[in-house]
Amino acid sequence: MTDAARDHVGLTDTFASRRYFRKFEVITVHLLRVAANMQAEGAISKEEVKIVSRYLSGLLYTFRALSMKYLLVGRDTGRFFGSLAMDRRDSGFPVAAELMTMANDAQQARRHLENMPSEAQVKHDMVRQIIGEQQVPTRLQFALSQRLYYEELMKGELFWARNDPESLWMGNTDDRRRFMLHWAVYDSQINLPVIYLMEVEDSGKIALPKDERRWPEVQAHLMAQALGGLKLVTIAKGFDQDFDDLHPKRLKRFHVGPMYSSAYTEQSGPLRQVLEDAGASEGQDWALAWTTEELESEDVVEERAGWFSTVEREVFALDPFGGRGAETGATHTQRSIILPQRPFQVLAEQDPPGFGDVRKFVVSTSGQVLRY
Fold first, then answer.
1. Where are the domains of the chain?
2. Which residues share a beta bridge with 311?
3. How far is CA 237 from CA 83, 214, 280, 288, in A?
4. Quick count: other Cβ atoms within 10 Å of Cβ 58?
5. Model-level pTM?
6. Which helix (H) or strand (E) is 250 found in, with range?
7. CB within 8 A of 297, min separation 6: which ones?
8. Can you list the alpha helix ranges (DSSP code H) found in the chain?
9. CA distances in angstroms from 65 to 117, 122, 146, 160, listed in the order given
10. Distance of alpha carbon 365 from its chain centroid, rounded?
């Protein structure tokens, strides 16, 4: 048994905290480019890249809001407001409790803003204190940062700890409607964002999103199963058994992270050594893992349901190579890593075991993405 709290560290230094958020903003922008690159390769469809990009944009907005909240960390602001807690060993991301607190703050953001002076007023007071009293207006800076934090929350479209299922109509196949269901969570066990996409055929009388009975049940079911420890085949089979007129044809899961950084994280393994040996400049000393799992239905069988009726059940294809399908519960699993040029050069030189089948996306400071 290990104490997870020991792996969580607070970023109490102002400049370390700001570098951390700046690093993640750069990484998230690169992720959006990588998603577009994967679409160009045919690895994911146009509809899928739109959905995934929306969640990645939500992550960007979430980090932007948190950067405002902790902008003055380590400074004397007149009140204790803590520091960002991050998981330095397993993920490199903020701990899930940060997003849960943020969701609570969002519910009360409007009330906080009503009781705060305007941005123009705070800036006016800051100038007056700098010129008139010749002091650094730290407390006013803190007040402004908190206002900007709540304003970011009010804008919405953030990545929350729970992002409930939504549906996208994909057309009709014969007499069935096809939908892409998508949802996402911030897994509290591993402190990582996880995105789910499921293609389903709907043979019900009422379209799923308009069905007042089935749609809430589907949403609750999928969120209850959104656990990183569950295999895709377990999730898909459970869904198939619980909803006779919904037929899951494909299920995808995207794990965003872990993030490795020689300046912030303490993960073990070859990537840590690669980053240390790379000695890259600030903002270039990182690597981000990206794993895609996919489960596909390969056949349909009929089962009896009662005395006079039958229902369809999906038969899912598992990875046939080396018996890995039963172990992973997926048809395909693709591991990728995104990293700047200098760490990639060191990775290529050292060529550590286990990276042969990992797709490498190398990003440049100009935004170009190359795949190796």
1. 4-155, 162-371
2. 303
3. 42, 17, 46, 31
4. 19
5. 0.91
6. strand 246-261
7. 236, 247, 248, 249, 250, 314, 315, 316, 317
8. 14-41, 46-69, 96-107, 109-114, 119-128, 138-155, 214-224, 232-242, 270-278, 324-328, 341-350
9. 19, 19, 10, 12
10. 23
What's residue 365's pLDDT?
A: 78
**Amino acid 169: pLDDT:** 95
DSSP annotation of 210 = G
Q: What share of the chain is helix, strand, coil (3-state, %, to 5)?
A: 45, 30, 30
CA–CA separation, 262 and 248 (whole Å):
42
Mean pLDDT, consecutive 10-residue segments, the chain of 372 residues? 56 83 90 89 89 95 94 68 82 93 94 92 91 86 92 95 96 90 94 96 93 96 90 94 94 93 79 83 85 92 76 83 64 92 90 88 86 86
Question: DSSP string spanning 147-177?
Answer: HHHHHHHHH-----SEEEEEEEEEEEETTEE
Task: Give how far Cα 141 sits from Cα of 26, 85, 135, 182, Å.
Answer: 25, 22, 12, 39
Residue whose pair of structure tokens reads 């046939």 in the numeric block:
320
Q: Which residue has the tokens 């494909």?
A: 250
Supply 187's token pair: 């897994």
Which residue do the tokens 């700890």 mark? 161
> Do 160 and 66 meet the contact criterion of CB atoms below 8 Å apart?
no
C-alpha to C-alpha distance for 99 and 102, rounded to whole angstroms? 5
> What is the pLDDT, as a whole number, of residue 269?
78
Query: With contact defined as beta carbons under 8 Å apart, do 255 and 186 qualify?
Result: no
Q: Are 274 and 350 in contact, with CB atoms under 8 Å apart?
A: yes
- CA dist., res. 286 & res. 143, Å (int): 32
- State the Cα–Cα distance between residues 46 and 64, nearest whole angstrom: 27
